[in-house]
Amino acid sequence: MRRAIIKTGLLGAFALGAIAAHAEITIGLSLGTTGPGASMGIPYKNALQLVPKTLGGEPVRYIVLDDESKPDNAAKNALKFVADYKIDALMGSNNVPASLAMTQVAAEAKVPLIALAPLPQLAAEKHKWTFVVPQPPDLMMSAVAQHMKSRGIKTAGYIGYSDTWGDLVYNAISALSEANGFKVVTNERFGRADASVAGQVMKIIAADPDAVVVGGSGSPAATPQIALVERGFKKPIYHNPGTVNLAFIQTGKSAAEGAIAPTGPLIVAEDLPDNFPTKTVSLDFVKRYETMFGAGSRNGFAGYTYDGVLLLDAAVTVALKKAKPGTPEFRVALRDAIESVNNLIGTHGVYNMTPANHNGQDERSRVLVHVMKGEWRLVK
What we know:
Elements: E1 3-7, E2 25-31, H1 38-46, E3 54-55, E4 58-66, H2 71-85, E5 89-92, H3 96-109, E6 113-115, H4 124-129, E7 130-132, H5 137-150, E8 155-161, H6 164-177, E9 183-184, E10 188-190, H7 198-207, E11 211-215, H8 222-230, E12 237-238, H9 246-252, E13 260-263, H10 279-293, H11 300-319, H12 328-338, E14 344-345, E15 350-351, E16 367-372, E17 375-378
Parallel strand pairs: 2-4, 2-5, 5-6, 6-7, 8-9, 8-10, 8-11, 11-12
Antiparallel strand pairs: 1-4, 3-4, 13-16, 14-15, 16-17
């Protein structure tokens, strides 16, 4: 596994400013920058070049380990961060199974975790130490369900990953189906690294649904999209926020046209109304990201890293009044401070944390987009 240390004042892949050793804050990130989740993990890591140079006014060091998109590696990385680097907070990973693996370490070590993938309901001891940046699946998929209702869709096929993310999307759309007047008629699954889903797609086509919902992410989500289009499926194909990046379009090519998905507002920042609460922050991030990584490179995953750092920045300011970085007392103070963050405007939404809600977002954190002429555009 690869290691990258991103430190203020160090020359290397990332240089973020000068270090004052007396109050250095250390953050450990486990990300899948290789493996099947790399199309998401790399943008998560790229965003570190755009984050503030300090946290709470103090210098910060980011240590990045590649977990190869594997849960076991994510857990090992989290343990290494705690034991070897005495980190003040954890961040990661870029898929649900790997992030879940990190929650156990965070709870046992009593260190705050900024989860960068949506998570299911956690047990009380894990919930206490974990804060989730991405929007909950049920919140995001409600935009899909409402759009399906508006189009008179009565039946929907489902195909998703054969893991926790596939379950989360399926459970969300199924829970929303009755209230929005449709029924989910298939539950097909595929592996993240599968090259073909021909068998699953044939079963969906045989069921003849009015639409299909895909529970994939990144470039692998294009596999069922392509298979459906190649077999003549001309009805709506809906996705989820994990699909919304350039890699999906590049992999799907012409077959990606028309794909519909919910996502954070930064993806279509220019199309947002002027009074949309995140527009200023979203526009600034998109412009800086695309200046550095190229036109069309914007993606929601990088925004999650950025918003996670904004949460830490707000919380560190408070925690520093109670304890010194590198101590158990500081970790406790930081956890408490994150839980009290209020009205923080990020690239994806407005965060209002509470002891009961460690995500803190509402409908202002999601919009519906579709692929039009090779770009993700706002559905109007």
